[in-house]
Please model this.
Amino acid sequence: MSKKLSNQFLVSLRCCAFGAALLAALPAIAADTYPQRPIRLIIPYPPAGAGDIVGRMLSSRLGERLGQQLVIDNRGGGGQVIATEMTAKAAPDGYTLLLASATHGVNPGLRDKLPYDSIRDFSPITLVASSPLVFVAHPSLGVSTIKELVAAAKAKPGAINYGSSGPGTGGHLAVELLNWLAGIKLVHVPYKGAGPALIDLVGGQVQVVCTSPLPAMPLVKSGRLRALAMTGSTRSRAAPEIPTVAEAGYGAYQASLWYALLGPAKMPPAIIKRLHTDAVAVIKSQDMADQLLAQGAEGIGNTPQELETFLRADIERWTRVIKQAQIRAD
Model:
């Protein structure tokens, strides 16, 4: 090889090495300057619902900390699969995020095939908030606790009906989890929303409903319904006088409505760290905590690793319940 060709070869090698080093450094460079433009926050439900309210609480405050606006993109429908798939297929650059809900943990067991993997195709950032459901009963049933409900169900198998917002919803699965753990059979009556279910509960057409505390507690306070138990792992700060289902002797029982911040898989670690740090600061702020409590929820703000562990456990639990109860998506 001539000296001239040798020099050209060395120059080419140096250029390749420099290019490789530059490509390797790009994620770090991007993270140092992130964010440089507005961030899209996909919310997989229509405006004005509980999830949308939590998303807007988070987006306005997180946008202030990041120095860029979080633009809300409501993508309801399809059992949240549409919005979740959009996030999974987005560029992993930190400019598309998803406010996932408890449905994210339910869908793998409820649907035969999803266009994404609920764990592998996402970058966990933090669990934003969690809210328990509440078991409420019509006074004519004559029960005031979960133990009394279980006893009544065992005394008259198949005689007690419960309403829900529909197949596969949180209230449906929460009751089926109790059915499984307690060895009872409360009979499911699906409705198109919590409102119609509660109306029929007050009217005595069904005897039990498990739903969000927000629409149910005013009916409890007026004496038209009885609160039996909350479904969280601990008592709710919003209603500490109501015991949990676990306290009734079902220690494995836990069901909640939750909201988590996720991004597409393979997001740069530095961008995940930035989003996590600022999101947790927002969630832990007194202003955010007070507003969440007014919605019957509590801020969480855990680590990405803790969120992944939580998601895996949630998916495993609900898949078992769905299989046991033979529930399928409509």
